[in-house]
Write a structure and sequence with these properties.
The structure holds two protein chains of two kinds. Chain A is mostly helical. Chain A folds into two domains: 281 residues, Orthogonal Bundle (ABC transporter involved in vitamin B12 uptake, BtuC), CATH 1.10.3470; 73 residues. Helices cover 69% and strands 1% of the residues of chain A. Chain A has 17 helices and two strands. Chain A has a two-stranded antiparallel sheet with strand order 1-2. Classes of the chains: A mainly alpha, B alpha/beta.
Amino acid sequence: MTTSTVAETAAPAPRRFSRTSPSLLLVVAMGAFLVLSAVRTFTGGYDLTSSGTVAAGLSAAVPIGLAGLGGLWAERSGVVNIGLEGMMILGTWGCGFLGYNHGPWAGLLFGTLLGAAGGLIHAIATVTFGVDHIISGVAINIIAPGLALYLTKVTFAHYEGGGQKQSPPINDAKAITLPFSHWLHTIEDKHWFAVSDLAGLIGGVTTRLSLVTLLAVLVLVGSGWILWRTAFGLRLRSCGEAPYAAESLGVNVYKYKYIAVVVSGAMAGLGGSALAISAHQFRDGQTGGRGFIGLAALIFGNWRPGSLAAGAGLFGYTDAIQLRSSAAVHALLLLMAIALALIAVWQWRTGQRTIAVVALVIAVLSVLWFADTKKVPDELVGTTPYVVTILVLALASQRLRMPKADGKVYRRGEGH
Amino acid sequence: MTLAGSPQSSDGGAGNVGSGNVGSGNVGSGGDSSVGGADLAIEVVGVTKRFPGVIANSDVNIAVRRGTVHAVVGENGAGKSTLMKVLYGMLRPDEGEIRIGGKPVTFHSPSDAIAAGVGMVHQHFMLADNFTVLENIVLGSEPTARGALNFGAARQKILALSKTYGLDLAPDELVENLGVGDRQRVEIAKVLFRGARLLILDEPTAVLVPHEVDELFDNLRELKSEGLTILFISHKLDEVISVADDITVIRRGMTVGTANPHSITPRQLAEMMVGSELPSPQTRTDTVREAVVLSVAGLTVADADGRDIVQDVSFDIRAGQVFGIAGVEGNGQSELVEALMGIRPAKSGRITLNGADLTRQTTRERRLAGIGYIPEDRQRQGLILEGSLWENRVLGHSDSPPNIKGPLIDRAGARRDTERIVREFDVRTPGIDIPALALSGGNQQKLIVGRELSGSPVLLIASQPTRGVDVGAQAAIWEQVRNARAAGLAVLLISADLEELIGMSDAIQVILRGRFVGAADPATVTAEELGSAMTGAGSAAGAA
């Protein structure tokens, strides 16, 4: 009966599929941490690893991560959602609207709903009418801030604390602090190599941890579970990889794309709400491109939730450093040089000579800049997260794999 | 029934069939059909399907006996695919009916067909590359447990299927890592997973190399012995004759008759199918001249990971010579061609054309130097499907007359020359303003061949030039290449069709894992010898 399986010798050599093992990841993380402590110790840029920076970085990472998660849902179903920024703006306004008199959680819910509404518009345009995904997304990005500003003038202008461009204050969401965190602060202040840095890291995560941040973590884990462990998730992802194959197996591709894009908008709205809550009010222009940075985190994370979170963490961290201390930004130059040098070595070994040389040149320039100055000019400090984003995306993420049918217009019955 | 061994097991009892490793040579000796008990798995009665301006199917009648392999043969465009789409619920017939187990059925969608036990293995695989085998198979009918996908149950069921039908599946492998034959088995498993009892295979061998075809046929015999029925669409006649129990021939949308595979020869069948004289790939006369046109020395090409996918390859092609490269797909042929065309950089080595060093030249410069290129995937690399025929004629030749006049595109000239190609290369089309996607595969290919032989090239790189085209178009393409060869054209031919390779080539090299592992003399080598050399099983002269 099994006459078929004998001559398997002739199968073409299988292409290697690199999947990073957990132990390797741990080693890399440890190495990065040690480099970080060394740079902190050497430069005295204590804010590189202080608990304050870690806490601020974490709360800065939440909106970025949620926006990225929104991108993950949409793009896994094959719809590019560049309108995340606009949906996020809707979320910030929605959170301001209900947040100032009904509390942060009501605001959060309404912001999420408004984001979902933005997602629904994108879904109608791209899925039903086959509008180019970028055009629809850009339209949403242009309409949303105008709409938010108009609504602000109509609703908030007459309230105490509100104005033409902002909402009245929103109460803070509950935060939890673990009992041992004071003890960690003591260790952190000793500035011991590695030990204090670790204390800062743990201290930052365990002191005044907002429930919104916890919620974001749950949403992240939940999204990963739904998309990769359930039948629903498999079908949704199949729409992004091979919609016509999914169709041939009876999957209603339109339905899954709709669900995905609406959830995507909801995630962005949730991210916007988290942003408004952490700033205690809605302000015009509050998102500041975080929707796009979220997309960058998604790409950096290779369309996977775990590495997406790592990307959001990186961007949140640089954002926090930039806000807290220009000495730390100065120290960051050295850190960046080391990272770029490592990238250069790695890219050289994988044969990407051009990238390696570019990375090395920028690394050398960073070192020179670091050695030659005492601080980075204030005007440039604000650009830190964006510069880091571009460098990382351009030089490190060369082997990304987006969902195969991502951004392609799907029409039922038009496969071959 | 085609059973080896004891004659009393006429209904495919597993005990008798599975008695050890019955080689495929033994199977198929019992020619007489068990007419008495032959009930019909599916019956097509008087089916007609019209499209605006075309009648794709006209009064088609097919009766498929349960537990058999039934082949439907016909040229490209004869209406086979339309018929299959009707059977699978993707199209509704305008007239006539389909009966399953004697009862008329109406399919509104593929889901209805699946529910009735009809499954389709598409010619172009419907698989998600970035999914595992398991994910691809269960998609759409996933077993679940407590809200989550039950991977354990799915894996068990797939392994059981794999064992029963000899499909050799690895559930957790990514599909992108699989070869073509494995992918096809995944497609078959998808259909079986949904409980299909009738499998429709649409040109399943079009993408396979010989040993994969043998494996597929073993699988089909396996399925048949388990009582499943297979409807097999093809235009490769020798394969049809070797695997089918019954044959129905379709020409121009109509059933022109049935044939008994045990008494008919491929030639007779082909004449039934085409209704005319038959082509053969033989080049016969020797036209090789002295002058070396293409000289490749020590060429090494690396892939994205930096591994050498073509290693130290050297060869010369002379004017009037067809140089064939034989190899299992994925052994570096595509990369070699891309390096020759300048699409992919050469890591080391030297490429010269008529003495001029091309190694650092761009693709455009190489084309201007006189290289014509028939890419392996005509739809992705050879044409702009949405573009009209004359625009596709300009493609890649937008630097030279008749396509340009000064800096501008010469519409009139390009159109005139497209008319010439359509005429000389027998591209069957209603006009040159229709989009390329409206042509059948064979006619698309003839257009490409015509384009690439225009402007008097000195070298033609032909990658799978007749893949998936019917016998008529194949003959036309062979004829054109032969004529150009006689006029002194050097040709690099890469083909999975070993008959074509042996028939057309003046010299053959076998490529394995990126290296040339041996030469074969096309005058003496057989397809079997070449096939085993390609898999590394022996030298070109070795036994199968």
